[in-house]
Structures are given as C-alpha cells and as structure tokens.
C-alpha cells in the first residue's frame, strides 16, 4: 500500500503551482475546472512518484494557519544531500520565504531545514 496523493486547498492556485514547479521540479497536468462548483485543480507530480493535488474554489473558507494546530503540519521533501538542503534553503530565503529553522542536525539525527511556503504551509527540507 502507498499514499496515492495528498490534496490541499489553496487561495492562489497559480502561484502555488509555480512554486512547486520552480523549487521542487514538480510536473503539472492541465488545469481541471468544474463549472458547476467552480473547483479548479492541478496534480503536481514529483520525482519518485509522489503527487500533490492543489485545489481552489470560490466558496472556500479561510482557515487558521497555526503551526501547532491539529491536522497536517508540514510537507517534507528529501533532497538527497546536505548540500542540496543548504542550497534550496538559501534559494528559498533569497526568494523571500521565511526560514523557521536550520539547516541543522536535529536531536534525532536528521539534517533538515523548515521554511514557510505559499499559503503558510510549512515545508521541511531533508537529506
């Protein structure tokens, strides 16, 4: 068994698609649009087969973006090396994304950094 995909609602569909494409080499399908509900979606495919569905619709309700809330807390991307974690952390910071921590070695031995991406989603970069 494997997780087929993760889906999340976003306010700005296009900027999220561009972010994951630019920084994480995601490949996007063509936008799906349901004219009845106004739903618009993209599936973003990552190296290794993971998929993220980003969705937007006009009747969405803005949620609370608190890092300590229940539910999904972050998306983690394995980059393959410490050098790649360092490089992408630097590139994201230079692009204006806030770094929460790292790069650093955690108490349980992981090398990682955490940033806040579009829509206030916490993104963990790890080896």
From TrEMBL:
InterPro entries: Fosfomycin_Res_Enzymes, Glyas_Bleomycin-R_OHBP_Dase, Glyas_Fos-R_dOase_dom, VOC_core. Signal peptide: none annotated. Residues 2-127 form the VOC domain. Pfam families: Glyoxalase. This is Glyoxalase.
